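sry for the spam today, last one i promise. struct tokens for design, 310 residues
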């Protein structure tokens, strides 16, 4: 039976604009393409599912046109949503501008996914999941931060919690952030986020500092974009070399890495093996347009075999 992952963080609707360049204040972008798709927490769930996990959505699901897009996306991926539908608000959305280099720029506003109660979270997390995934966004939204912090500070048993501090890490309430880090088994952050958490811009030192605070069976991953990533536990700290691709869309790459990493750990890989798989999966995801473009295992293993043959 596949390991089970509960995604507690919200799914939003991405409004995707392919632009020549992100405009300066007062200017307008030249747009080459536009699409609407589920995004946010959706991306990591798809990546984990494609890498072999059983995945459920425990975030909020609203009522309205954006929520309909999210519900259809979850149904297409056969990902069940476990909470009652929010009839008071629609789903949040994120405007994503993807420039010619493949880099993405965000402007987001929350909706139903930004609301939760302690009762809702407790009912979900008592269902015996092997892994729980939590994003810093759930600690950032006013409608969910209090309940999430209360749950994190409770004695609720959690087998494995993966925490992604997210780009808003510097704006998170300090008590909520500390509670998430204390409850976490693994932290996965990019270099900038890791620097906020540790006070150092050295990716290796940041990874070691974060890993030292995790339980013995946990650790930290610091993602360094095109330079690869660093994986650290209490016992080692290793670099994962970059897997070279020509990116066209980096939106969702971090989520592809995180979902793939969790799934491979759950499948029995060592942390190093899981991080290596995840980095290749994330790199391949950037070669396709759209946020939820994580590859299937056969694509990743084929790429790994080609890299080893070089």
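last one done:
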């Amino acid at each position: 039976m596949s390991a089970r992952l509960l995604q507690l963080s919200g799914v939003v609707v991405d409004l995707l604009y392919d632009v020549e360049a992100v405009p300066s204040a007062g200017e307008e972008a030249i747009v080459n393409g536009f699409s609407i798709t589920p995004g946010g927490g959706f991306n990591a769930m798809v990546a984990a599912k494609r890498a072999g996990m059983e995945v459920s959505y425990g975030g909020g699901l609203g009522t309205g046109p954006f929520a309909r897009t999210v519900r259809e996306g979850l149904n297409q991926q056969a990902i069940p949503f476990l909470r009652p539908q929010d009839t008071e608000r629609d789903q949040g959305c994120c405007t994503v501008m993807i420039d010619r280099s493949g880099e993405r720029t965000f402007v987001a506003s929350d909706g139903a996914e930004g609301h939760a109660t302690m009762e809702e979270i407790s009912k979900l997390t008592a269902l015996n999941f092997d892994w729980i995934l939590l994003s810093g966004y759930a600690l950032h939204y006013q409608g969910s931060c209090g309940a999430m912090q209360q749950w994190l500070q409770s004695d609720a048993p959690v087998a494995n919690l993966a925490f992604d501090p997210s780009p808003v890490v510097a704006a998170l309430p300090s008590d909520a952030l500390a509670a998430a880090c204390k409850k976490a088994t693994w932290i996965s952050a990019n270099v900038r986020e890791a620097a906020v958490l540790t006070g150092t811009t050295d990716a290796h030192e940041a990874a070691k500092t974060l890993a030292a605070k995790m339980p013995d069976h946990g650790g930290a991953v610091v993602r360094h974009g095109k330079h690869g990533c660093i994986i650290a536990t209490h016992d080692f700290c290793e670099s994962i070399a970059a897997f070279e691709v020509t990116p066209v869309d980096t939106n969702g790459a971090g989520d592809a890495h995180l979902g793939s990493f969790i799934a491979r750990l759950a499948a029995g890989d060592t942390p190093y093996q899981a991080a290596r798989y995840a980095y290749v999966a994330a790199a391949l995801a950037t070669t396709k347009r759209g946020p939820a473009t994580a590859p299937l295992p056969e694509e990743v293993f084929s790429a790994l075999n080609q890299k080893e043959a070089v």
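The longest helix spans residues 271-285. ok im logging off now
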